[in-house]
Amino acid sequence: xxxxxxREEAHRYISLKELVEAVLNAAKDPVKAxxxxxxxxxxxxxxxxxxxxPAQKEQIRELRARTVDLTETLPDYRxxxxxxxxxxxxxxxxxxxxxxLRWALQAFLSQGxxxxxxxxxxxxxxxxxxxxxxxxxxxxxxxGCDREGHLIYVQALxxxxxxxxxxxxxxxxxxxxxMTDCQGVHSLICASERKTNRKMGVSxxxxxxxxxxxxxxxxxxxxxxxxxxxxxxxxPDMGRRIYVVNAPSAVNTVYHMIQSVLAKETRNKVEFLDSxxxxxLCAELGAENIFEHWGGTKKAATATGxxxxxxxxxxxxxIENLSHCHAPTxxxxxxxxxxxxxxxxxxxxxxxxxxxxxxxxxxxxxxxDFLIRKDGYEVWPRFRTTTEFVPEFGEIECDAAGTYELVxxxxxxxxxxxxxxxxxxxxxxxxxPFDM
Length: 436
Known about the structure:
single chain, alpha+beta, CATH 3.40.525.10, Jelly Rolls, four-stranded antiparallel beta sheet, 11 helices, 13 strands, 20% strand, disordered N terminus, disordered C terminus, CRAL/TRIO_N_dom_sf, CRAL-TRIO domain-containing protein, CRAL-TRIO_dom_sf
């Protein structure tokens, strides 16, 4: 059993999921906007290398040694602070942190995140845009660093059009876009840590300008909830502060709709700013680091730089993006029923390395966890997928011959079975009807 560091030595943390949850929890009483509430209890949450205890260093060394087989092309995940984040997130329980970290590293490798150039804000934005052109209509993006070297990320949450974005493409493309974005954030945090020899984090600005209850489109909310859950598991302990600006009273309604899935302990980790929010952001993060749109003096080609500002997805973009989804005929589809709390697996024999494995499926209701496994490893990571508007389809190039299992997991389902209509095919050349 791994030795645990006493709680009094542990640094407090906030995960990416908690960043969003904290905003919505604090919205329970938006009239208190402007009351200063800090996420962290002091600078001890961001220690220097010299401030790490011998017990922390010992666990960091052990975690590094037990993941070295996966980090050859992911060097940022060998650093002391990167590994410390995983230990903090799991209360210094090495046995709990290790499998979660190994799963995340395997997912990063399966999605090719190790091959991306994420060395600047612009290169991160380019990498995100390259996953799917529709991502420009999903708000968010990096502004840069503050005066201390912490990153600044902006989420113009109210600018998303939930109905058009949910119909714009397969759910996993959105997940892959946000994984790329978060990987870029992590990469730039690590770069800042190498310069400062101090653990760094992200200050998140959530801009609710334009908020309306039209945003409460339940199919999209479920997709976003699944996305937050995924990012929480993959990128723990990244948050520093949350500033919420332009918050309307209607946010209270949002809180009551989703409070059952929120963590109580996040309630005091966010600050709603009053009408002087521009002055506050400039004072704390530096006017020179804030784009003009949010009250600063930082120059860019546009007032908001490379930050995606959302909007309705044009019909022409929807048509073009969905043109690659060639549905099989009913006769070409097979059926699989997955009971609640169970999973179903479809074995596929791959005759030789270099073979392409392609899939297409729809789930008749709700969401289903989909992954591809070989010899106990996830060669396509677990994504909780809904196909209400767009089916899931994709391909991988198999590195080795053998049996690959396409797994449809309904373990999170409490009562209802899920019916899957699917087609799987292998080959070395592009295969109709899965022409990408």
